[in-house]
Amino acid sequence: MKQSHHHHRWQRTLILCLLSLSVVAPVLFLSRRLQLLTHDGRSDFLDDLSTVKHRTDLLKSNAIEQENSEELEEPKQVVYKEDDVDSTLGDDSENNNDSEESRIEGSRNNFLEKNELDDDETQDQEAQQKGVASTDETQDQEAQQKGLSSTDGDQNIQTHSQRKTDQNIKMKAKQSGLTVNQHRQVSRHQSRRVTNQTVMEIKDQIIRARAYLGFLPPSSNSHLVKELRLGIREMERAVGEATKGSDLSRSALQKMRHMGASLSKASRAFPDCAAMASKLRAMNHNAEEQVRSQQHEVTHLVHLAARTTPKGLHCLSMQLTADYFALRPEDRRLPNENKIHDPKLYHYAVFSDNILACGVVVNSTMSNSKEQEKLVFHIVTNSLNFPAISMWFILNPPGKAAIHIQNIDNFEWLSKYNTFKKQSSNDPRYTSELNYLRFYLPDIFPTLNKILLFDHDVVVQQDLSTLWNINMNGKVIAGVGTCQEGETSFRRMDMLINFSDPYIAERFDVNACTWAFGMNLFDLQQWRRHNLTGVYHKYLQRGSKKPLFNAGSLPLGWLTFYNKIMVLDRRWHILGLGYDSGIDKNKIEQAAVVHYDGIRKPWMDIGLGRYKSYWSNFMKYDHPILRRCNIQA
Question: Which top-level group of life is the source organism from (predicted)?
């Protein structure tokens, strides 16, 4: 009896030991397995685990990388069975609602909530446990059972996938008639285009959210308003300066889904489409009004800046004026004054009150001239700027050339005309006496036969000596035409002249070729023969009685010199550097003279930066007096 009891006790002990072993052994085995999996680090462990997860999870966690990857590691039947990258991404999004492309295509109408995503993942895991997995899951499980989750197995999968990728690409390239490299480039371009669409969708969400906020009363403080405002802030912070999907973080894509859900709530809160359309039209109208208002303000400020003397130029004028009056009278004489009346020399005239502009015209003409000793510069200015401009050329004499500076107040003969106050404009560019002196050239230079008149906003880039030898065929003025349609400098007669007036319509052809001031050669002998100064006074007097032309000297020039213009090749004089930012660089560099006509002058802050170097190359900014007035390029 005792022996039987001992036998039963030993039997129970053995059974308990076997049960303990059946429990402990799997734990030890799994622990060892986990150690092997985590041997290469946490990231490799996560990668291995991802192979046994449902394909939905894999695509969701690697959506961004797939878009830009050149060597995809997915099985053939998943990634490479479609015709192109766009269709591949589109089909993937249909089968996997968590993928990034699903978020792109369905961002407007079918955004998923976070809890819905969690439910999907839970269902997928349960399906996998019950054996209802897809072919991809079966393959992944078989790979895991065979030990392919190790490093060698991963390499085999990648090699197999790459081989399938190359075969698929070659087949598609053959069908489309492209080389393999060309097909890869097209595929990458299409993938990049789809990827960039993600950023556009995010920005579109922000715009839609702002629109919904505009529908609500300003005092509204509902939960939806707070949610939309918070979403806008988070989306703006998430997208930042990103221009493509690969620049976005996964948190940004998560916020994109949340914003989609918020927009879905907002769309349900505003079911009245007609009222929303009306509100949007009102918002659009208000936005356009604000844009127009801002444009008018910018235009006004730019014109105001154009009529304002920069602080540096004002300082320069004051400094030079003080230095001029500090000189003795005999020290105020300019060199080579004996040449100023010689008709055999090349005479250039500039009417200006701008010191730096006059300096650049003289310096650029001198630098490109082959016969500097034949050059004579005539500068006419007003009494306010006469001392400063004189002092500038005393400090910076033009080498072998002669320079003659005159004061308009010393022209006693000019007072009898009394024509400068008849312009109906408040713009000093149109009312300045210096602007209309061009119509009195024979009176200003009675001993000369020819003269070349510059506007003060030009730069000379070539030698102009050949211009003096052209045959003008009895014409009075030579200049470049502005009658070529398509050019930014194109002008028609009726743009500045009133052809509805019978007096104008009977005497002028509206289709006559127009021309530009800025660089013009005048035959003063022909001018005197036709008494064109008297013709100018006749049109000026008629224009003061009724509106025949716009303000400015150009329309008066077209009337005064009608049929007396010799049109020059456009390479002599390029226009538009003061208002047109799209002039061809080659045309500028080939032109003999470049003209900064317009309000954006190169010596002002509002000047067009891409053209300033052509002007600043002829101004020595290291001059002590310029540095003293803080005048910089």
Answer: Eukaryota
